[in-house]
Amino acid sequence: MTERQAIVFEMIDEWWKKFGYAPSIDEVMKQTKFKGRGHTHRIMKQLCDLGHCKRLPNRARSIRPSYIRIHKLEIK
Protein backbone atom coordinates (compact mmCIF):
# COMPACT_ATOMS: atom_id res chain seq x y z
CA MET A 1 0.00 0.00 0.00
CA THR A 2 1.40 3.37 -0.96
CA GLU A 3 1.41 6.40 1.31
CA ARG A 4 -1.51 8.02 -0.53
CA GLN A 5 -3.50 4.79 -0.49
CA ALA A 6 -2.90 4.54 3.27
CA ILE A 7 -4.13 8.12 3.75
CA VAL A 8 -7.31 7.45 1.76
CA PHE A 9 -7.92 4.11 3.51
CA GLU A 10 -7.56 5.71 6.93
CA MET A 11 -9.94 8.50 5.92
CA ILE A 12 -12.55 6.00 4.65
CA ASP A 13 -12.20 3.93 7.84
CA GLU A 14 -12.57 6.95 10.13
CA TRP A 15 -15.52 8.26 8.10
CA TRP A 16 -17.33 4.91 8.51
CA LYS A 17 -16.68 4.93 12.25
CA LYS A 18 -17.92 8.50 12.61
CA PHE A 19 -20.89 8.64 10.22
CA GLY A 20 -21.77 5.03 9.35
CA TYR A 21 -21.50 5.52 5.59
CA ALA A 22 -18.80 6.14 3.01
CA PRO A 23 -17.36 9.51 2.02
CA SER A 24 -17.94 10.83 -1.49
CA ILE A 25 -15.02 11.34 -3.86
CA ASP A 26 -15.30 15.10 -3.33
CA GLU A 27 -15.15 14.67 0.44
CA VAL A 28 -12.05 12.50 0.11
CA MET A 29 -10.49 15.14 -2.15
CA LYS A 30 -11.25 17.91 0.34
CA GLN A 31 -9.84 16.01 3.34
CA THR A 32 -6.70 14.74 1.58
CA LYS A 33 -6.13 17.88 -0.51
CA PHE A 34 -5.80 15.86 -3.74
CA LYS A 35 -6.42 17.99 -6.80
CA GLY A 36 -8.30 15.71 -9.19
CA ARG A 37 -11.41 13.57 -8.94
CA GLY A 38 -9.93 11.04 -11.36
CA HIS A 39 -6.78 10.64 -9.27
CA THR A 40 -8.83 10.21 -6.11
CA HIS A 41 -11.14 7.70 -7.79
CA ARG A 42 -8.15 5.73 -9.08
CA ILE A 43 -6.68 5.47 -5.56
CA MET A 44 -10.04 4.32 -4.17
CA LYS A 45 -10.34 1.72 -6.97
CA GLN A 46 -6.80 0.48 -6.26
CA LEU A 47 -7.75 -0.04 -2.61
CA CYS A 48 -10.63 -2.25 -3.77
CA ASP A 49 -8.40 -4.13 -6.22
CA LEU A 50 -5.87 -4.80 -3.45
CA GLY A 51 -8.61 -6.13 -1.16
CA HIS A 52 -8.38 -3.44 1.52
CA CYS A 53 -11.81 -2.05 0.63
CA LYS A 54 -14.99 -3.33 -0.99
CA ARG A 55 -17.74 -1.54 -2.88
CA LEU A 56 -20.99 -2.18 -4.68
CA PRO A 57 -20.92 -1.51 -8.43
CA ASN A 58 -22.84 1.54 -9.65
CA ARG A 59 -23.57 2.75 -6.11
CA ALA A 60 -22.49 6.08 -4.69
CA ARG A 61 -20.84 6.04 -1.26
CA SER A 62 -20.60 2.26 -1.16
CA ILE A 63 -16.84 1.93 -0.61
CA ARG A 64 -16.03 0.50 2.79
CA PRO A 65 -13.16 -1.20 4.60
CA SER A 66 -13.18 -4.96 4.00
CA TYR A 67 -14.03 -5.80 7.61
CA ILE A 68 -17.45 -4.08 7.38
CA ARG A 69 -20.13 -6.51 6.24
CA ILE A 70 -22.37 -5.67 3.32
CA HIS A 71 -25.63 -6.18 5.25
CA LYS A 72 -24.86 -2.94 7.09
CA LEU A 73 -25.30 -0.98 3.85
CA GLU A 74 -28.77 0.30 3.05
CA ILE A 75 -29.71 -0.57 -0.51
CA LYS A 76 -32.52 1.63 -1.78
In short:
With 76 residues, the chain is mainly α. The protein has helices spanning 3-19, 25-32, 37-50, and strands spanning 53-54, 64-65.
Radius of gyration in whole Å, from Cα? 11 Å
Helix content: 40-55%
- Helix/strand structural class: mainly alpha
Low-confidence stretches: none
Overview of the structural elements:
By secondary structure, the chain is mainly alpha-helical. The protein has a single domain (3-72), classed as Winged helix-like DNA-binding domain superfamily/Winged helix DNA-binding domain (Arc Repressor Mutant, subunit A). It is 51% helix and 5% strand. The protein is built from three helices and two strands, in the order αααββ. The protein has helices spanning 3-19, 25-32, 37-50, and strands at 53-54, 64-65. Strands 1-2 form a two-stranded antiparallel sheet. α1 packs across α3 (37-50). The chain starts with a helix and ends in an 11-residue tail after the last strand. The model has no long low-confidence stretch (mean pLDDT 88).
